[in-house]
Fold these 2 entries.
Entry 1:
Amino acid sequence: MTTMTETSNAARFREFKMPDVGEGLTEAEILKWFVQPGDTVTDGQVVCEVETAKAAVELPIPFDGVVHELRFPEGTTVDVGQVIIAVDVAPGSGDDVPAAAEPAPAPAPAPEPEAEAPKARKPVLVGYGVAESSTKRRARKGTETAPAAASAAIQGEMNGQGTGHGTAAVAESRPLAKPPVRKLAKDLGIDLATVTPTGEGGVITREDVHAAATPAPAPAPVQAEATAPAPVVAPAPSVTARETRIPVKGVRKAIAQAMVGSAFTAPHVTEFVTVDVTRTMKLVAELKEDKDMAGVRVNPLLIIAKALLVAIKRNPEVNAAWDEANQEIVQKHYVNLGIAAATPRGLIVPNIKDAHDQTLPQLAASLGELVSTAREGKTSPAAMAGGTVTITNVGVFGVDTGTPILNPGESAILAVGAIKLQPWVHKGKVKPRQVTTLALSFDHRLVDGELGSKVLADVAAILEQPKRLITWG
């Protein structure tokens, strides 16, 4: 009988391990738990948000059940393959809980008598994936003192009866907000419980967080009810009167390592050209009124991106990579166009796959989607992999130009400066014209000065005379 009971308990509790959500990543930081012990979860429901060296990613649970315990608190960096959550997949079966339970890292409420029995855990390798048929997240409830009470509370909530069953203490309900909004609130030091939601269904929006930050920018301590499990959060930046020390991790750490590696591995050369883009600006204005471009965002970056793609088509040798291990130059017959994007987590460079095959409306749609996804913090590791050439638009900050560092594994990066009205000699007369400065950095191991100059000159020529998009494209 003992063997049968142990087998039943082992099958009852399933464990979800930290998956490799990128390309060979070894660790990830748990940013936010969306569930607590006692919560009911369904196959495909997002249970937490983690940050890797490349992006923030939401993790769905691949089975149904009731959350038994969270193995790590928010702010903890966990190795890929470590168990992060245990789920009771057969709640209410009457079996004793497994023996030899490891203590949860976060304080847990006092268990009911039947939950005090020791438990044994059988590790189960769990795959990672989202079930398309069940991706809707259930509303959360207050955490109660035992799985049985938790199940009853959820059932009562579904029936419109609230969560107060018996004498079990109920934790305060979790405010509704999307992960990027939660990250914004965390960065601004805003307790979401104090924010008044204006979104549909009581969802807190970015505007709500900003509104809450305006009158009271100082962070307020979050008070948890005595019976609610209070997750342990990673230490905040160390602040004194004279300095602030911020831990370097996640995307910021990866950026630092990649930039140092690129700067001291690839011999950089940067060339500059100042160009009259008045005709390009007129084209942008005309395209905004064109019915074929309806529904997509048209801006100078769109024309610049198309100009770079045409220049690469005319000079394909620039679209390459240096293979140090095999001592080879790898020429790419496709262009995955990277767009550097500044986000709250740091600089990221997602890319548009096979951008060379896209029409102007398609490229405009791809740029719009890329930017909006990056701003929401939803850029996936796959979206940042495999880039070949990058554009960084420093002009949006009013900067004239710069000397950009290559994105690792790429051969060139184009910096676009601010477009300003300046005096310019046009048709023999000095006139006010829209002018910008471009800077092209390239890897001198595989791109010599002649090739780099041709690419930069072609981009400038197209921006000066946009009709070359047709004659050269």
Note: The chain is about 25% helix and 25% strand.
Entry 2:
Amino acid sequence: MKTLQNLTGGVWGDSFEDTPLDVVNPATEEVIARLPGGCRADVDRAVAAAVQAQPAWAALPVAERVAHISAWADAVAEHADELAGLECREMGKPVGIGRTFIDGAVAGLKASAAQALSYDFEETISHPDGSATKILRHPLGATAVITPWNFPVAMVLGALGPLLAAGNTVVVKPSERSPLSTVRLFELLDLPPGVVNLVLGDARAGAPLAEHADIQLVHFTGSVGAGRKVGAGTGKLLHRAVLELGGKDPVIVDAGVDPVATATAVAFGAFINTGQICTSMERVYVHQDIAEEFIEALAEAAGTYTVGDGHGEGVMMGPLVDERQRDTVRRHVADAVERGATVRAGGSEPDGKGFFYPATVLTGVDESMLVMTEETFGPLAPVVIVSSFEEGLERAARSRFGLAATVYTRDPDHVAAATRLPAGVVWINQWQGGGPERLYEPAGDSGMGATGARAAYDAATRPASVHIAAGTASGEPRR
């Protein structure tokens, strides 16, 4: 039984709080590790280390900071199989799928850090009278990253690149439900002491970190409720927050597309990682002209998503992260069926140990049902038949969430109309498409603060202007 420790100022050590939390393997329901519950004293110690280390880190040339980050990325790549195995044990993600996302995160970390080499940390604008204005982008100082349980490695790497490359130091608080891979990630770290620090625990660590007076920015990914609390805490301090919160992402399937191929793509978007992705397809609007063929193909595809321990060969879907998450899925399905929905595939969990739930397709759903209005975060694909693309577009926009949306169409006019969906990201004919150039800000209750590409560096720095009068080199003042 491994007991996890915090990393503060380059030193691994025990928490000031001695009440442990259990890490449970969701496939076997066995306790596999323990971690501290966390406390304010742990946070104070980690933040102090980050504050102390920040000036020296910021003083390094940008290229040197980027080289440090790239070396860490290389170390992570060498241990990707090990990290994917830890993710499987702590939150259920099949190893092969975990490895794919970790590889992508490593490439993303390198790309985002490399963007610092072309970012304008200093720009000089010359004026006709001989004076000049310097635009400087200063690092903020000590920052915090609070990550969710569904992508422990990828979410940490995705947030840290721009923050570190811009000259900030960081305190990371991973979810208490999946800390093992993050601890190992930090064991591979080779940065100056205090540049990156790790505090474990639940809200007893997260709340004081988000509200700490010396934390200049909080990058938080999680639920809407928790995100509101983070935003309120940083707002009182007049500090920054980047919040990526819940989603209820729609997919619109237009007439004219291949219904079978599109159903296969939608199944992947709805069921991969057991539907535990912020941008999982959670609402499906299909045109009536192809609806029946699409639904039959989607139900058939759902049956191919084999459920089991993610270490097993051929397993497509692991368990949900814990009993609480499976209860949410159960409740959403039961509510839909009670209100008239039809189960076309799945809909009942297997016997035995583990928090498993099959890929499930529902039809006959409407906006009165939880499965259409609340984030499920499970392997459910509720399907609504619409009479036109315009109806699908209108119903897709009927949500308090606005993280991402996907549209399958062959009509150029419908492509243009889809760009107006109230979402941070809109994918046309390719879910999860795009590269490091992507930047977005969630709409509605899905969060606030732009991320990606240059926006990540804008968020990680504070602009300042310095005006230099003409003739300043001579030392003579101007009236």
Note: The mean pLDDT is 96.
